[in-house]
Write a structure and sequence with these properties.
Length: 272
Amino acid sequence: MLEIIRPGASAPGARAALFDFDGTLSLIRSGWLDIMLGTMTRTLTALDTAESPEQLRAESLDRVWPHTGKDTLFQMMEFAAMIQARGGTPEEPQSYKQQFLDELFHLSDARIAEVREGRAPADRYLVPGSRAMLEDLRGRGLTLYLASGTDDDRLQDEAVVLDIARYFDGGIYGALPDPDAFSKRMLIDRIVTGTGMHPSLLIGFGDGPTEIAEIHRTGALAVGLATDEPECLQVSPFKRRSLIDSGADYIVPNYLCRQSLLPLIFSAYEPV
């Protein structure tokens, strides 16, 4: 289950850990990519080019996946560019973002309601082993940060619903109305340049190329969550390749392997 990409990679003195949200901890939005690609493929097919739906879906994936982990607006900018390149007249990217979110919320709101109303435990919509990993790291005294391309108001609410907001004493940070006002790069740079901090003291966890690339860029330790949603019991080959290319030091399908992973990260630490 645990794959070592860079042997010897460790952060024995780590003081902080950064987590992405969707697909890294939360499964509330599991299925978002199929929704996004489905909408894009239908819209592009209607432009009546010579391309097959399969070709259009593949190109859409290639265009939007590199932006996974950023504000969804960046993916919609790619979508608009694809429409324009095929002779269509695109709407504003913000409009496409809202259309996508409206469809996604139909799915995610039903899951949130299940948890709020007690019809499902919060852990049903967490990547397996997430809570134990968060408690492990907090028990070691690490400051935890949560960062996502999900809009901030939704992120704050969903973290509470899943009962994980309490772990993130470093703060919870989501996308803001002005896409230039927040990014994972900005947060990571602020963390590693803080008082008493250094890139070697940060561990990052993510299932998307954005956070893994930014963590790797600073020289911090990067753990890639190649979560094959929604079960997250096997490694997703697609995510695995993307995360390795982005600089992941380790690849895991979930956090159930934490008792193998943590001793590698904290060389003198043996989990109880």
